[in-house]
Structure formats: C-alpha cells, structure tokens
Amino acid sequence: MHNIIIQIVYYASAILFILGLKRMSSPKTATSGIQWAGIGMLLAVIVTFLSPNMHNFALMLLAIAIGSMVAWMAAKKVAMTAMPEMIAMYNGMGGGAAAAIAAIELFKLSADTATAMPITTFILAISGALIGGISFSGSILAFFKLRDWLKNIYFPMQQVVNLCILAAAILLGALSYFWHSNFIIILFFAASLSYGILMTMSIGGADMPVVISLYNAFTGLAVACEGFVLNNIALIIAGTIVGSAGTLLTMLMAKAMNRSLVGVLFAR
Predict the structure, then answer these.
(1) Which 3-state string (H, E, C) describes 178-224?
(2) Which residues have CB under 8 Å from 223's CB, separation 6+?
(3) What residues in the chain have per-residue pLDDT under 70?
C-alpha cells in the first residue's frame, strides 16, 4: 500500500509537469505554468523521502537547501538579457545530476556482479551517463562563451578528433559491461565530458541558442534514462517531456535561422 501511494504521487507530479509545460506555451499563463511544475517537483521530492531504504536525510536536506539558496539568489539577480546564460547553467546542472546518478550506480557494481545487471538497464545507465556528461560539460562551456569568457577554438581535423572521442566513450561504456573496472568507468566519463567540451568550443555565439536547446533535450533524455534505471516514474515522464520538447524546439530554432542542426554542430 505504501508503494502504491508513492507511485500515485509520482503520477500526480508528472501530470503537473505536463500541465505546467502546456501553460508555459502562452505568455498569459506562463507564470502559473512554472508554479504548477514547481508544485509537481515539490511533491516528487517530498514523496521520495518516504520511499523505502532512504537514508542520510540530513545530508539530502542540506544539499537541497544549498542548491535552492544558490538558485534563488542567482535567479533574483539575473537580467532578462542574460537569461540564455542562466538556462545554459541550469541545463548543465541537470545533465551533471543525471550523470552523477549513473556514476553512483556504475561504481556500485563489483567485478563479480557487473554482468548481473540486465543488459537493457546497463545500456540505459551508460546512455544516461554519456548524454548527461556531454550536456554538463557542453552547457558549462556554452555559459562561458555566452559570458564572453571564452572565444571560439579551432584546430586541424577537429571533427575527426571529436568523432574519435565519442567513439572511445561508447567503446569504453560497452567494454565496462563485460570487464567492469572503476578505471574504465573513469575513462568513460572523461571521454564523455571531453566530447561535450570539444563539440561546443568551435560553435559561434549566433548558433549558441540552438546548442543550448539541444543540451536541454540531452538533459531530459539523460534524466529519463536514469529514471528507468532507478524505476522512478516521475523521472521517466519528466525527462521524456523535456527531451521531446527540447528536441522539437531545437529543430524549430535551427529552421528559423535557416540552418541545419548538422551545419550548426559540424560546420568545421
């Protein structure tokens, strides 16, 4: 009965996410849409504390308090003209959180139990880690570029190097299923983070809104993947909504700029 109540609240949270997103589509109802989505998130957080086998409540509350305080102060001070930078930073934090969850699950495995995890679950964990890592490092770099703290960086055969780094990350992720090693997992995350940086460093400021929207979609997909790993319906639904909405927005923005997404990401 206890678990049923938790699942019902998660579904209620997901419904509030959907309704909130719908209301955000109009300037007249956008404020209430944000409030509805916020209430949904609050419900999801509260009911998570009631889940079985939950520990370290003080540490979790401290982390929530610190994160909420920093976000509140930053949001109060940010100007509307700097909103893309704020969105880039929030995207990065979401992707980083998803990657951190995946890292915990992967490091928990021992050499004797690595293949005991169902391969579908393992693929989702690795996918969430890869996408979340790329979104985290890429979004942070996008923030630096929007703040004009970093200029575009080019080097010979840049796209070939990027492709090799991405292939290495995928290979390391696959290898970790058959030969689990913390060192391999560390290399996997290093490659994922490196690819996010390399993919973003050559993109110009005019194309940065498209890239930020893409990373928003990446963060949603990463959260959805980790929702399947943790069997958390709220994460699955919320991540899927953010991922699909972010993907659609990315395509529409690229089309409005008369650019293809491939042209934005792989222009050089």
Answers:
(1) HCCCHHHHHHHHHHHHHHHHHHHHCCCHHHHHHHHHHHHHHHHHHHH
(2) 94, 97, 98, 128, 132, 235, 238, 239, 242, 243
(3) 1, 110-116, 267-268
Predicted structure pTM score: 0.89
* Burial class for 143, CB neighbours closer than 10 Å (0-12, 13-18, 19+): buried
pLDDT in tens, 196-210: 999 999 887 778 888
* Residue 127 contacts residue 106 (beta carbons within 8 Å): no
The domain ranges of the chain are 1-77, 81-265
C-beta atoms surrounding 81 within 10 Å: 7
Task: Return the closest-CA partner of residue 182 out of 124, 99, 98, 108.
Answer: 108
